[in-house]
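Q: Structure tokens for this one, please.
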Amino acid sequence: MTDMELFSVVYSGAETAVAAELERLAELVGVDFVRGQGPGVLTFTDAEAGMVVAHFHDMFSPYFPRGQVRLRVRDDVADILELMAAVGSTLRGRVIGVVGAHGGAGTTTIAAWLARQFARSGSAGLIDANPASVGIDHVIAMDAAPGKRWADLAGDGAILAGRLADALPTWHDVHVVSADERGGFTDGALAAQVISAVSQTQPWTVVDFAPQALVGSRADGGSGDVGGEPLLDWCDALVLVTKGDAISLAHAHVRAGQFPRAVVVGVGMRSKNEAAHAAEVIGVEQVFPVRPLRGFRGDIDHGLAPGDRPRSAAERDVKAIRDRLEELVA
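A: Here is the predicted structure, written as tokens:
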């Protein structure tokens, strides 16, 4: 790769109608579009009236064929969308996986809180990737909000990033893919499409995994499959969440050894000394504590969600985790 700014889709021609149509299609797919500038991963130039010539940047020749293709802007919409969707699959934001070292670690709360932290500088995605989940939207107090859930996304056909972003419920600029009473995801291939699509439109996407995602993972010499797909492979960084009791730390010790670059988070740890002790037991350099938030369960019951108390100590703790993740994947 190179340090130059590279746009997703560029139109270097002079036809206003063609530019408007290409911009509309790029917005639908969820990739950035510029006119008269470059370079781009995919560039369109004018041919005869109503036609364009498309070609991919040479830097991406391992992904796309070389050469050019001539397309009619009005008649070959499906082909143009396919080319733009291919661009989106190679350009995406960061994906952060959050997984518990054991059951009941509090991963859903941490995942939602991190997504909200990332969204403070723009927007973010939050994906409920626990097949047994009753819905992450309950934790963030938006289970009644309109928008598509996992059950609405099942079926044949490609998932276009821009269209999906517009269809999802939004919570404090976080685009949320949640389970509901109809269930969570059961198709790993669909889950991979959704992670890909959300991360094409969001600079940060946080994925809440079940602890079972670590069992048989690639670090164990297995496939790392979740619902038939190695979904952990999508993650640029992994957050491993644990509680502070002896049994929980024993689980965390095993998992941290398998994922040495994971950011370890200790839920309910009240002091730096407690976090330092946990780090020694687990065998990692640092455990990031998230101090208990008094009355948090009651907050959820009364419609409050992670991040609704911005002056709390726990909020500062989660911000520190976000800062560490930004450093790790920079």
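A few notes: Residues 313-329 form the longest helix (17 residues). Residues 96 and 206 are 5 Å apart (CA to CA).
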